[in-house]
C-alpha cells in the first residue's frame, strides 16, 4: 500500500519538463528584449553621430565658403588649420588701429567662425606677429614688437566680439617677431610676417 502511495506523490516527468521549458522561454524572452533594446540604443547612437557629423560638415562648409573669397583675393592664407590675415589688410604700418577693409573682413568671418566653434571643445586663438624691424624711437604707442603684436591681436579679438563672437570663445596672444613664415631679408618677406593668425585650439579641461 505504501509503495502505491509513493508512486502517486511523485511529480510527473512532463510537469518538470514543462517548468523547465517555461523557464527557458522566459530566459530567451529576456535575452531577446535585451538584444532588441541594445540594437535600438546602437541605432539611436548611430543616428545621433550621423546627425552630428552632418552638422559639423555643414559648419565646415560654411567656414570654407566664408574663406573662399578672401583666399582667392590673397587677403588671407590658410596653413595647417590656421587662418592668416595680412597685416596690411588689417593695419597701417606700426599701427594697431583697425582699417575699414580689415573690419569688413573680420565681420564676414565672425559668424562662420562662431558656428564652427559652437559645438566643439575648442577656442579661437588670435595671434599677432610682426617682422624683425625694431619699433622706431619716435613711436609714442609701442615700445617693441611684442607690444605691437599684442595690441593688434587684442584689436582683432575685440572686433570679433563686437561682431557677435562670444568673449568666452576667443582670446589673444602675441609672438612679436618670433615664428616668421618668410625670411625678413626683403620687404615681401617682412610683409608676410606682419600678420594676425586665427586658429582653433583645444579648450583646457576644468578637471584638477
Task: Explain how this protein is built.
- The protein starts with a helix and ends in a 6-residue tail after the last strand.
- 56% of the residues lie in helices and 15% in strands.
- It folds into 2 domains: 2-43; 74-202, 2-Layer Sandwich (60s Ribosomal Protein L30, Chain: A).
- A 5-stranded mixed β-sheet has the order 1-2-5-3-4.
- It is built from 6 helices and 5 strands.
- Helix 2 runs antiparallel to helix 4 (100-118) and helix 4 (100-118) crosses helix 5 (145-162).
- With 208 residues, the chain is of the alpha+beta class.
Short summary:
This protein has helices at residues 2-9, 13-73, 87-90, 100-118, 145-162, 187-193; strands at residues 76-79, 82-86, 122-129, 170-176, 195-202.
Using the coordinates above, name the CATH class of the largest domain.
Alpha Beta
Rounded average pLDDT: 84
CATH fold-level topology of the largest domain: 60s Ribosomal Protein L30, Chain: A
The CATH H-level superfamily of the largest domain is OmpA-like domain
What is the helix content?
A: 55-70%
Distance between termini?
82 Å
> How many H/I helices?
6
User: How do the strands of the widest beta sheet line up side by side?
Assistant: 1-2-5-3-4
Q: Report the portion of residues in β strands.
A: 15-25%
Which residues form runs of ≥5 with pLDDT under 50? none
Number of strands: 5
State the main characteristics.
208 residues, alpha+beta, 60s Ribosomal Protein L30, Chain: A, 2 domains, 5-stranded mixed beta sheet, 6 helices, 5 strands, 56% helix, 15% strand, rod-shaped, Bact_OuterMem_StrucFunc, transmembrane, membrane, transmembrane helix
Amino acid at each position: 500500500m505504501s509503495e502505491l502511495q509513493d508512486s502517486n506523490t511523485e511529480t510527473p516527468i512532463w510537469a518538470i519538463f514543462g517548468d523547465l521549458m517555461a523557464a527557458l522561454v522566459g530566459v530567451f524572452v529576456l535575452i531577446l528584449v535585451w538584444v532588441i533594446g541594445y540594437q535600438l540604443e546602437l541605432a539611436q547612437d548611430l543616428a545621433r553621430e550621423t546627425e552630428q557629423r552632418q552638422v559639423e560638415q555643414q559648419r565646415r562648409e560654411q567656414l570654407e565658403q566664408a574663406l573662399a573669397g578672401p583666399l582667392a583675393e590673397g587677403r588671407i592664407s590658410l596653413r595647417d588649420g590656421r587662418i592668416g590675415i595680412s597685416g596690411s589688410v588689417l593695419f597701417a604700418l606700426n599701427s594697431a588701429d583697425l582699417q575699414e577693409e580689415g573690419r569688413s573682413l573680420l565681420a564676414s568671418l565672425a559668424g562662420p567662425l562662431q558656428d564652427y566653434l559652437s559645438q566643439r571643445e575648442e577656442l579661437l586663438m588670435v595671434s599677432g606677429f610682426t617682422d624683425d624691424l625694431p619699433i622706431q624711437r619716435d613711436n609714442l604707442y609701442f615700445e617693441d614688437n611684442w607690444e605691437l603684436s599684442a595690441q593688434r591681436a587684442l584689436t582683432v579679438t575685440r572686433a570679433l566680439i563686437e561682431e557677435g563672437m562670444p568673449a568666452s570663445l576667443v582670446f589673444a596672444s602675441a609672438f612679436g617677431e618670433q615664428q616668421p613664415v618668410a625670411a625678413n631679408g626683403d620687404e615681401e618677406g617682412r610683409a608676410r610676417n606682419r600678420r594676425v593668425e586665427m586658429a582653433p585650439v583645444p579648450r583646457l579641461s576644468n578637471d584638477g
